[in-house]
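Can anyone check this?
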Amino acid sequence: MPTSAAERKRKSREHMAALKAREKAEKLRLRKKKSREHAKKSSEKAENQTLKRKERDETNRIKRQQPTISEEQFLSQAMKEQVIKNFELAMKLIKHKHCTSCKMVSLTMEMSNIPNICKECHSKKCTEDYWLDNNMLPVWYDENNQVHYERPKCLKNLYDAEKMLIQ
């Protein structure tokens, strides 16, 4: 038997009310969940601060207990000279690494098995042309259309404010 228009309206209103009630319950559930998460984060933050404070206090307590050592007692002259020599030797062994593709220079750059190419350029299969074509390197061209990576002579004696304007 077909239902009347009034009956359909009533069912529609009941359905809408049920949907709104579900929506309201879901919002309430989400608010409670956020509130619990916030309370948990606040508790963790307070706990971390307490731990840091305890560590700092313990470090200060240990420092106060340590006897002070004069420089003469700490290292003899021969030991000082050896430490300095070791440091100088270590500094001589440090070499800058230079990638010919992206022009990056670093002490800690990891190089690929291809000479003078960093691992990042090797993994992306980048060439110097890739960096130039995508305007990713600060370069300028002379009248012969040759690429230059160094600063032009006319820009070397700029004031800081002028340099910032160019950037």
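Reply from J.R.: I decoded it. The chain has a mean pLDDT of 81.
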